[in-house]
Amino acid sequence: MKSLFSILKEKIQDTPVLRSANASLTVEEANKILGEIFGQEAMSFLQARYIKNDILHIWCQSPTVASEIRLNENEILAKIREKNTSAKIIRIKTIV
Predict the structure, then answer these.
(1) DSSP secondary structure letters along 36-94
(2) Contact 47, 59 (CB under 8 A)
């Protein structure tokens, strides 16, 4: 039998406000990770924008950068999950 505290904790985590805040923190963390992997010079060509349906959408200015993101997708996802354990991102989609 679950305690009242655990039931309330589960319900609070499912609120839209908390999910939105978690997604926003995850996008911010993704931008930091992209800066670490590709360098700060590349940040003018790419930026993590939003999370929708557990997919991180990254804006890219060039198709070359988009292909680099696809090649490093597993590494990016692993670092995001390492920094933010509550993130449930299943893949990355690039917006060119």
Answers:
(1) HHH-GGGGGTEEEEEEETTEEEEEESSHHHHHHHHHTHHHHHHHHHHH-TT----EEEE
(2) yes
Which two structure tokens, joined as six digits, stand for 88?
A: 């449930």
The pLDDT profile of the chain, 96 residues, written as one tens digit per residue, is: 778 878 777 777 677 877 888 888 899 999 999 999 988 888 888 999 999 998 999 999 989 889 999 999 999 999 998 887 677 889 999 998
Q: Which of 38, 40, 41 is nearest to 70 (CA)?
A: 38
pTM for the structure as a whole:
0.81
